[in-house]
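Allow me, if you will, to draw on your knowledge of protein folds for a short while. I have a record of one protein: its chain in single-letter code and its fold written as discrete structure tokens. I should value your view on which stretches of the chain appear to form regular backbone elements. Thank you for your consideration; the sequence and its tokens are set out here:
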Amino acid sequence: MQKTIMAIGGHVGDAELTCGGMLATLALQGYKVVTVAMTGGEKGNPPEMSVAAYRRQKEKEAKDFTDLLGGEAIVLPYLDGELPDNKTIRYEVCDLIRKFKPEALLTHWKNSMHKDHEATHRIVKDAQFFAALPAFERDLSPHFAKGPYYAQNWEDSVDFKPYVYMEVSKEGFELWQKAIQTSWFAMNSKSFHYAEYYAGIMRTNGLLVRKEYAEAFDIEENQKRVILPADQEFVWR
């Protein structure tokens, strides 16, 4: 069966920027890539475009990005800056996890300058829990997705400590560079050079782990264990 990876962001563009290189790399390895945007991120609209028109554009951008990766984009109907933090939306994400059965979840770190990012972090953690347990009876059968892995993001940087470095292949980086051009704000924002920054951080992370490119993630403290199996030869690194 084809494996799936799911990246969940507060807005269209969050997952595409913070873990897009890894998503592109996995897509080239045969994974199905699913991005979920909790809101459209439409209130960062260009001056000449209405919020409603930019929402439509952002939804198209999400689809265009995953189309290039052979994946699928989902944009939930919630408004930018007004993401609810309740049980209903947790079950909604739970149902998406059960539907697509991803190997792992990628999402926001817990501390952010954006309330939607922080809410997304909490929602995803609880949705992962709901999705895994049979006792939470839903239409679809339970599924446990690993993680969550919390993506490195300059907007979510407080107390973030890179722990897992995931290699981005040269081909994956090139595919990401092509795909991220579908995002207007990533390429044209005057407040922050998003595409340039995330390309640079991929290269910097790669140098740190002696690869061409890499993306960094944190995980929960109680998951930070290194296990050395007794029945396998250990290679010191």
About this structure: The two ends are 33 Å apart (CA to CA).
